[in-house]
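Protocol step 4 of 5: obtain the predicted structure for the target chain.
Materials: sequence only (see below). No template structures provided, no constraints applied. The aim of this step is simply to have a reference model before the mutagenesis design in step 5. Sequence pasted as it appears in the construct record:
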Amino acid sequence: MGLLFKEVKSAGRGMYLYYPDTERHNPYLTSLITVIRGDDSEESVKNLLKQGLESLSEEKRIVLAFPNPGKQGWNIRLLAEAEDDTEVLDKLLNEVGKEDDDPLKTNEIGIPLLSEMLRQWHLMNTYRYVIGVGEGADMAMTYAATKPESIAGILTFGGEISREALAGAKYGAVTAVLAGASERAVSYFVKACGCTERAARERIETFANPTNEASYVIKAPKSELSREIVFKVYEETFSKVRKINTGAVGDMDTISDLTGDEFKWFLDDESLGEKHTWLMHVPDNLPKGEKVPLILFCHGGSDNPTEAAKMARLHELGKKEHFITVYPWGSNTASWAVGYGSDDKNDKTEDEVFLVKLIDKLIAEYPVDPERVYMSGFSNGAAIAQVIAMLYPEKIAGLMHIDSNWPGNRWKPVELDINDITPMRRALEQKKDWMRMPVWYTYGTREASCPVFKGCTQQYQYDFWKKFNNIKVEETPPVGTDKPYESGVPGEKIEEIRPNPNKLEQFYTVNRFYTQDPEPKNYYNYCLMHDKGHEVAPLDATLGWNYVKQFKRNPDGTVGLV
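Step 4 output (structure tokens):
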């Protein structure tokens, strides 16, 4: 699409945007690189594009943003009497997904309409990187120090970090490649990234964090931006690290590699009757002649199979645990249809039909054990995962969804009747009294519906699954508990899991609930990760898998143990 200029009213500032010549809505990953320079001319942007950035954008599917400084330049020292340029950058970068400055049209609960999702470039906050050149290098460092949650990686040519920026720094890790930066700047990023190991080779110094391979600093000699350098930094750093929404300032994480013979794309496949797309991972170490488990992981709203795979990384677990993973793309290529616009009890969305047919196809064509098919998903994908599990329990051995905010409104209480929620009503109407579904559900304590309160999305979910599984349904308090890591209704058993000795503030509280059957079973688990926002944390999938993998769906529809 090329270069264009966009004025953003909310920021009172403009920026140049360069969009690659590719479909804006595609099943792959598109990342964002923001280039902060010292002037506001179009000529400086064009010169930077010629020095390798245009080629990088086109070859690697990257959107480029070139924000303009104010009339007095960048407020590097964060002077109170001047405009706060870190806030300006936030406002500008929140508008990079579309060419115009028109507000997004949303539904009644603030979710962008499908038409709005499809007209935007989908740029996940996880994959934001910054390049600073000239005077822009100083601003890039200031932004990374005071807004580390907004940046995964930084490349600067020269640059100093001001004392004022250090005073306001959050010391959140941002992986950094610093060419010719000041010693003070290098020292800041080394400390922020938790680097305690140093290695030197020729004129390059590398500072490493021994407990996080994605958090490091490279100190290089002074140089100028060039095609060779931007491609090298992209290949060796930007394409390898991401920022995840765990902790108030985020954490650095590696990016999963989706290349190789174990992965197969099905693009616009018509074998199910309509065109559908999914990404499949079949490990090359599966036991010969044996049937293995299958997990379907459904992406979040606006996301796609690539983003889902890099977020959940279930295929990496599948390699170790010997199961097949499939990442399907919603029928409308943006979101999953869970609203069900009809009161007809036989109403089925295209997504419901698609996923059920896909499961049957995979069982027929691959070494999939039909008794060990599991559903998972994130956000909007967690909603459709629940729908399939509740409507087709005879096909699903366990459910391990993450961060669902369906049904209801995540931001405020609403009064809902389960009988007015089509899939829930259908599920309860058609289920046999003895039917059960093992569920492991993970939610973050920095999510909107936490602490849990009466009328929030979480209450309707766990009330339904308790009812489905013959677990006592207790009334949720009207206001949240003062302990955000607790469930609105505490589990019959509560346990803590602290997986990371270096992040003791990030722990899981598992609320376990048991059936009222003659032999009580733990078939519902509400697992809260403390200090997590709307995100799949590194261990979310592992904990869910460790629970559901013990169950299978017997031919008669009952739950059995593997």
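Step 4 remarks: The longest strand covers residues 368-377. Residues 80 and 258 are 46 Å apart (CA to CA).
Proceed to step 5.
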